[in-house]
TrEMBL record:
It comes from the Bacteria. The chain crosses the membrane at residues 12-32, 44-64, 76-97, 157-177. Keywords: Membrane, Transmembrane, Transmembrane helix. This is DUF4199 domain-containing protein.
């Protein structure tokens, strides 16, 4: 006996197929090439992103199931625009708010410096250049306060989730609308 979950499972399969076909190869190549693009905070960011994508799928399936093509077109375009804008902001923020440590691992800066760092960097805090951080020999806990680093981490995380939510929304709305159309 068919129920609403059977149709939702069909929608999920269609979404995964569209996502794999349109973004899979290009996105995987991009992530492979720029493996340092994921936020360094928190651990488990891929799993958190997957949960957000699932929530977007449920929202689209439940709320935007029977909308007109015009409405769907606006939602897809809006999602794509939000993705492009948030991607650009995210890349800028990640570059500006993080630095490579000597091992090449990306570390987050902070919005507030410690008193010791304020004296050492003489007015450059909190926007200290990567080279100055490397030359200081300090670790991020000696330069930026915990609160400052946590706020930067949350900022980068929110931008990341907005970016992935936008692309998930656009693809989910597209896949959901196409699922309802009759083959011509």
């Amino acid at each position: 006996m068919a129920n609403g979950l059977d149709d939702f499972n069909t929608f999920i399969k269609g979404y995964k197929g569209v996502l794999a076909a349109t973004l899979g190869g290009a996105l995987m190549a991009l992530i492979s090439e720029f493996s340092n693009i994921t936020p360094p905070f928190p651990d488990g960011i891929i799993q958190i992103t997957a949960v957000f994508q699932l929530l977007i799928l449920i929202f689209v399936y439940q709320v935007i199931d029977r909308k007109s093509k015009r409405f769907v077109d606006k939602q897809v375009v809006g999602g794509i625009i939000l993705f492009v804008v948030s991607f650009l902001i995210y890349v800028f923020a990640l570059n500006f708010l993080s630095y490579p440590d000597p091992d090449g691992e990306r570390k987050l800066k902070g919005f507030f410096c410690t008193e010791k760092a304020e004296e050492f960097f003489q007015g450059a805090c909190p926007w200290i250049a990567d080279e100055a951080v490397a030359q200081s020999g300090g670790i991020e806990g000696d330069i930026w306060t915990d609160l400052g680093r946590d706020l930067v981490g949350m900022t980068v995380l929110i931008l990341w989730l907005i970016m992935f939510s936008a692309v998930s929304f656009a693809v989910a709305v597209f896949a959901n609308f196409q699922r309802r159309r009759k083959a011509k």
